[in-house]
Automatic annotation (TrEMBL):
It comes from the Bacteria. InterPro entries: Phytyl_CoA_dOase-like. This is Phytanoyl-CoA dioxygenase family protein. Signal peptide: none annotated.
Length: 258
């Protein structure tokens, strides 16, 4: 298991073996505080949306969100896994409110994404402290080596995805991703993962960021949740969204917005 910062070959070898890695203290406290305020701002603008569902359709024209996912410290980590020509495929705040935050049932991300080939890496940025008590991410190390499995609908419990993987998962094999604000957990698109409900008195918020090499094609042509933006290098095979321009009164205000 990888639980501390490593670089280069060591990190990639651990990622290939376990399907995940953890990088500590990636972003500074001031930027994380802005991200936390951004989540509260989004919740105020979209009161009918559960805070676990503050995803792509609410973010694609948001300058602060792009400032955050385009931060060189995050993109440098993504580059270790997908190479120097990279783009943002999609991103999503999953903010579990105190005592009522929904679980994310066991799944593989690759079951949902229209990507060819399935070359993509997820960076999970901790906005809050993430612990077993408030529903941190749980991963099954090594499960990324199996193929993408079918999903099945689940209606007996309210959950973020409304689905779960259609094979048995031994929860005894799972590892808790305990993170501090500013830490980043990186995982493979086929690793089996999920999280429990938040029954604690503390919010648990994280931002999922999906980076792709620009050689990976986004094949879904009717995917309104996808927010593809070129971040670094050659544009490759996709068409990308134009970066939004900050407008006072319309967008979340942040340092350097103008």
């Amino acid at each position: 298991m990888t639980t501390t910062n490593q670089t280069g070959t060591d990190t990639l070898e651990a990622y290939r073996r376990d399907g995940y890695a953890i990088f500590r203290d990636v972003l500074d406290a001031d930027l994380i505080a802005e991200a936390s305020d951004h989540v509260s701002w989004l919740e105020g603008r979209h009161p009918g949306v559960r805070p676990e569902q503050l995803g792509h359709m609410f973010l694609r024209d948001d300058p602060f969100w792009l400032r955050l996912v385009g931060d060189d410290r995050l993109v440098d980590i993504a580059q270790l896994f997908v190479g120097p020509d990279l783009a943002l495929f999609a991103s999503h705040y999953i903010s579990k409110p105190p005592r009522s935050g929904q679980p994310v049932l066991w799944h593989q991300d690759s079951a949902f994404w229209p990507l060819e080939p399935m070359e993509v890496v997820t960076l999970w940025l901790a906005i809050d402290h993430s612990t077993p008590e408030n529903g941190c991410v749980r991963l099954v190390p090594g499960s990324h080596t199996m193929q993408t499995q079918a999903m099945r609908e689940v209606t007996e419990v309210a959950s973020v995805l409304g689905q779960e993987i259609a094979v048995e998962v031994d929860e005894a094999d799972a590892v808790d991703m305990v993170l501090r604000p500013g830490d980043v957990e990186v995982h493979h698109p086929r690793i089996v993962h999920g999280s429990n409900a938040n029954t604690s008195p503390h919010r648990r918020c994280g931002l999922t960021i999906r980076y792709i090499p620009t050689s990976t094609r986004i094949t879904g042509d009717e995917q309104p949740y996808i927010s593809a933006f070129l971040l670094r290098g050659d544009p490759g095979v996709n068409t990308y969204q134009p970066w939004p321009v900050y407008e006072e009164g319309k967008h979340f205000p942040f340092r350097g917005a103008r």
